[in-house]
Each structure stands twice: as structure tokens, then as C-alpha cells.
Amino acid sequence: MRTEAVKSSASRVRGPKPGSLPWLLKKQLLWQWQALTGGQRKGVYIALAVLILAVLGGYFALRSLLADLPLNAPLPDLALGPVLLAQAFLLTLMLSAAVRASLVTLFTRGDLDLLLQSPIPPRVVLASRALGVALSAALPAGLLVVPLTLALLVLGVWRGGVGLPLWWLSASLLASSAGLWLTLGLVRVLGVRRTRTVSAVLGALFGAGIFLGTQWANFSGGRGRGQQPSAVFEALSSFAPGRGNWPDREAWLWLPARAAWLEPLPALLLVLLSVSVFAVSVLALTRQFVNGAQEVAAPEGRVRHSRTPPGKLRFASGSRATLLKEWRLIGRDPELLSRTLLQLVYLLPLLFSVTRGGG
Q1: Using one digit for the tens of pLDDT, what is the confidence trace for 27-85?
Q2: What 3-state class would DSSP assign to 82?
Q3: If DSSP codes are grouped into helix, strand and coil, which group holds residue 199?
Q4: Potential cystine with 334: which of 46, 200, 279, 296 (Cβ 3.0-4.6 Å)?
Q5: Residue 213: pLDDT above 60?
Q6: CA 357 – CA 6 distance, rounded (Å)
Q7: d(CA 23, CA 276)
Q8: What is the pLDDT of residue 245?
Q9: Cα 154 from Cα 177, distance rounded (Å)
Q10: Alpha-helical regions (H) of 104-226
């Protein structure tokens, strides 16, 4: 009796089977949670408390204004365009985060050598890491999606409160798949070391692309402050089903916006598409993933022979040598390179206005 009791209690305590996908995913989530909180959970709890208070305040402020509106009706045609643009913006943020997370989780953490030498199938390892990439890709958009979802649920807008997280999770799977394809493709062409630098550049460009798009009016010469809001409003109102050259509401273009409002067929198609693309990506990229991991685990003691003939060495001057050294250090640090590029990109509108004589 005692032995059976011990076995039953052990079976209840025992978690996922070691080496299985749930077991690896649990370890991945614990690692990402520690990296996110940095060992200090107090700040996270404070942020959650502030978020809950803000949502409750919004509820009491808006419940009387929204009481008579059909909040759970299908989205009108004029709202599909702005919703789709907002989804494109969030997807860009998620893709940028997925590219950076793919490189970190696949090649930077340095634990793949042990995992691939274990009895765990490489496909299971890649699947767990890909789900971790999807979680990392979902975090930037979650800063906007989670408060909005809570507000919609509190206000009783169940279609948006359920459909928006469903779209968010589906978009994170798609962004993760695209990040894996892009990262492993760059590793195959450039190698791991150069891919770290290129992925940092691409991540910075993805993140700053939307910002430069918002400044297009300044670049194109539209300086009139009174004319810009009206032009933006006209452009948004013309981006709708059946207006101009845009297709009708039933076209595939508006499927993500309709899925975010939990229309049955678009939501089902989006979920099936995201899961299928993610599964196919894991199956197709397993071999390339193993090759990249073996390249990382290979000895790094290879000495590159200089192409400069002996006896013909050239030394730069003091200022030039300092600049070359600093540029080389920046090029070797992907995180520093991405931050430097972002700062330069965000300065472009200001420099453009100064060169054109603007205020």
C-alpha cells in the first residue's frame, strides 16, 4: 500500500516527460521569464497593477458613453482599413523582434550543442525554440494588445476581446516562421557570425520603417500643418472596401481585420494558416538548423591569414586608427550596431528638415 501511494504521489508531482516538447517548452518559458524580469519581479507586478487600474478607470469613464452602441456588431467597412493598417504596424514590430529572437535562441545562447547530442530529436528542439521565438515576437505587440483586450472585455465587447488575442497569437506564429526562414537563410549564405550583424541591421530597419513612413509627408514637401491631418484623414477614409480601386469586403485583403473581430470564417482561416505555416517551417528548416548549430559548435580557433604580403604593413594615423578601431568594435557587437542605426534613423527627419531650411 505504501509503495502504491508513493508511486501515485510521484506520478502527480511529475511534470512533462524529460526530452518531450512540453518539457523543452517549459524550460524555454522559464528562461525567457528570467530574461524578461531580470530576477526582479516587483516591477512587473507594479506594471500589472497600473494596467488593471487604468482599465478599470477607462471602464467607468466610457461605460455610460458606449451603453447604447452595438459594440458586438460586425465592423463597418470604414473601420477595416485603419484596423488593417494597425495590424500591419504590429506585425512589423513582431517580425523585427522575431529576427532578433531567432538568432539569440538558435545560435547565441550556446546550449544547442548539448541538446543536439542528447537523444532528443532535432525537430523537437527546433519546435520548442520556434515557439519561444513566437513568444518573443508577441511581446512588443502585447504592450498594445493586452491593455486593449482587457478594456474590450471589461466594456463587454466580447468579439474584439476574443478575436484580437486570437489574431495576436496567429500573427506571432507567422512572424516566428518568417524570422526563422530569414535567419536560417542568412546563416546558410553568410554564416553565423555575419548573420548576427546583418540581423541586427535588418531588425533596426524593420523597427524604424514605420517611423520613416509616418514622416513621409515631411520628406515629400507637405509642410502645411493644417493640411496634413486632413490629407491623412482622406487617405484613411479612402482605404476601405469598395472605395477607389480597393476590393470589396469579402476579398482576402480584409481577412485579418475581420478575423480580429471574430468573424467565424476569417478567424478559422487565419488560425489554420498560421498553424500550417509554422508546422511546415519547423519541418522544412530542421536540417538547416542542425547545420547552423554545428557551425556554432565548431572550434573557433581558425586563424585567418592576412592577404597583405609580409614586409608591406601599413599603419594608419592616430585619429584614423582610432576611428577604424571604434567602427570595428561596433561592427562586432550586433546589439550596439542596432542601437546606433536606430539613433541615426530617428535623426533623419530632423536632418532633412534642417537641410531644407525648416523650423
Answers
A1: 777 777 776 666 566 666 777 777 777 777 776 776 666 666 677 778 888 888 889 98
A2: helix
A3: helix
A4: 200
A5: yes
A6: 81
A7: 23
A8: 81
A9: 33
A10: 112-117, 122-154, 158-190, 192-214, 216-219
Please, are residues 168 and 211 in contact by the beta-carbon 8 Å criterion? no
- Higher pLDDT: 102 or 112? It is 102
Q: How many angstroms separate the CA atoms of 205 and 203, rounded?
A: 5
87 neighbors 174 (Cβ within 8 angstroms): no
SS3 120: coil
Q: pLDDT class for 204, splitting at 50, 70, 90?
A: low
* pLDDT for the residue 165: 92
What's the rounded Cα separation, in Å, for the pair 91 and 73?
A: 25
Contact at 8 Å (CB) between 159 and 200?
A: no
Residue 106 sits at the vertex; the CA angle it makes with 103 and 112, to the nearest 5 degrees, is 150
How many residues appear in the chain? 359
Q: What is the pTM of this model?
A: 0.74
Q: 168, 306 in Cβ contact below 8 A?
A: no
Q: Grid coordinates in use for 122? A: 532535432
Backbone angles phi, psi at 298, to 5 degrees: -65, 150
For the range 34-38, what are the long-range contacts, defined as Cβ-Cβ under 8 Å and sequence gap of 24 or more? Answer: 36/139
| 3-class state of residue 89 by DSSP | helix
Q: Give the up-direction half-sphere exposure of residue 249: CA atoms within 13 A in the CB hemisphere.
A: 10
Q: Of 130, 138, 154, nearest to 284 (Cα)?
A: 130
Q: What grid cell was written down for 39?
A: 530576477
| b/e map 272-311, b = 16+ CB within 10 Å | eebeebbeebbeebbebbbebbeebeeeeeeeeeeeeeee
The grid coordinates of residue 226 equal: 493644417
Q: How far apart are CA 240 and CA 230, in angstroms?
A: 17
Dist. CA 279–CA 98, nearest whole Å: 16
Please state, in angstroms and as integers, the Cα–Cα distance from residue 283 to each residue in 112, 124, 180, 287, 296, following that order: 18, 10, 12, 9, 21
- 150-to-8, 52, 215 alpha-carbon distances in Å: 40, 8, 31
